[in-house]
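Ticket #4471: structure export looks truncated?
Reporter: QA, pipeline team
Priority: medium

Steps to reproduce: submit the single chain below to the structure queue and open the exported record.
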Amino acid sequence: MTAELERELTAPVPSGTGAGPSPLARCFDTTPERFAAERWNRTPLLLRAADRSWSAVRGFDDLLSPADVDELLGPRGLRTPFFAMVKDGVSLPRSSYTRTANAGNQRLGDLPDPDGIARNHAEGATIVLNALHRVWPPLAVFCRDLAAELGCQTQTNVYVTPPGAQGFKPHHDTHDVLVLQVDGRKHWTIHPPAVELPLRTQPSKDLGPDPVGGRAPIIDAVLEPGDALYLPRGYLHSAQTTDERSIHLTVGLLATTWQDVLTDLLAGAGTGDGEESLVLRRALPLPVEAEGPTGVEPDVAAFRRAALAWLEQLDDAAVERVVAARRRQAVPLEPVGPLAQDRAARTLGPRGGVRPRIGLSTRVRTAGERVELLVGQRTVSFPGWVEPALRAALAGPTSPSSLAAGGAGIDVDDAQVLLRRLLRERVLVPAGAAPEGLR
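Actual output as written to the record:
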């Protein structure tokens, strides 16, 4: 690996959470640019742990280990729907693997039953941990960094399959996936798509009982710990354990399609003042009988002209705004600890470091002699003269001392007041705070 490539692979991802390799580099020894040019949304990729040049990280058990699975299903008391059990592609009844318990004066009926889980697992059922990026901090950080790197939403499920078992028959996903083998071995068979780039409205169940249709596989391999597999949406796949248990992560990549962009843009269609907008706002004709061959027929030709006129006047900037908004929304909001945040706001000193909260979208606007910070549905108002310092604080890591020395027209005391306010509003977080998982 060249020194230049090593610098690219080990650079922190845009969210600023990382040290060491970025998610793509860690899994596939590649950069986003190379991945986009060679693989994204097109062809599968399998990389063995032994072939990964980043030697510091071989496996994925730091994201989730077998002991972590036991903890989630035991002392942590993970609740449904965050866990389920599947056998031969069929979901087992919850009553067979859950138990009830008291929490104060409430009765909970969706807690894991270790005995039921062990019994079903021994009889060939797969344990599925759903959306674990929402409850397990290492996976939350990994998914957030990957979302920032790829510009699309991510999610993670975990599959714990007993020896000699198959969780699901050949099927396709309607989103791209990364398969990360954590523990044990699993035999994967990948076939070409029956439907190229299927949408969410084109699930596998619509393909019939034999979607493979006798075609030869393009990948037929046993994944071992540390191996990583990328599958674009639509590729048919099935997996079966060998003579040992398997734990793997499936990371879903919920890419924005051009159809999504068009849908977002269509939300504003017909809101202009032109004739084409008026045509789009008109109601369809009533389904009543009338004389003449076209008395009640919709004027399809007029609609087509209006729609084409709307597309013609659509400027590039409008499309770029929609794409940028989708990419901003891809990175989930970094959670903050209420107690730690309160302490930081009360004790921030001149050299105390703060940074912007990951995933938080803000906007600054002037309002007379005031400057306003728009944070979601909230508006936070400041004196107009702090605008340069406010923008500097939102741009990156800072401290009262560095903000005062940076030419923003503010002294240390006022900078301290400003940054403490931004901490209280949960716009900034302490610079030393390690991002945690979504709760």
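Status: closed, not a bug. The export was complete when the record was re-opened. Leaving a note from the reviewer for reference: Confidence is low (pLDDT under 50) at residues 1-18.
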